[in-house]
Amino acid sequence: MWKVVPVAVVWAIWKARYNCLYHHKNVEGDDLAELVKVRIALWCKHSGGGLQYSVEDIILNLDSIKV
After folding, report:
1. Which of 5, 20, 30, 42 has its C-alpha lying 20 to 30 A from 53's C-alpha?
2. Do 22 and 65 form a contact (C-beta atoms < 8 A)?
3. Is 50 left (phi over 0), alpha (psi -120 to 50) or beta?
4. SS3 breakdown of the chain: % helix, strand, coil, rounded to 5?
5. Are the CB atoms for 55 and 5 separated by under 8 Å?
6. What is the pTM of this model?
C-alpha cells in the first residue's frame, strides 16, 4: 500500500495545479490532503491486492495500517 502514496500525492498535486491554471479553482492544503487519502484508499481497495480494510477505515486510519 505504501508504494501508492507517492503516486497519489503527485497525482493530487498535478490535478490541483491543473484546476488552478485552467479552471481557476483554488485548492486548500487540507482539501488536498483529504483527496490524497481518498485516492490512496480507492486505489488500494480496487487494486485486487486483497486488502481487508474498507475505504472508510483506510481514510480514517491511514497512519496505523500495516500492510
Report:
1. 30
2. no
3. left
4. 70, 0, 30
5. no
6. 0.71
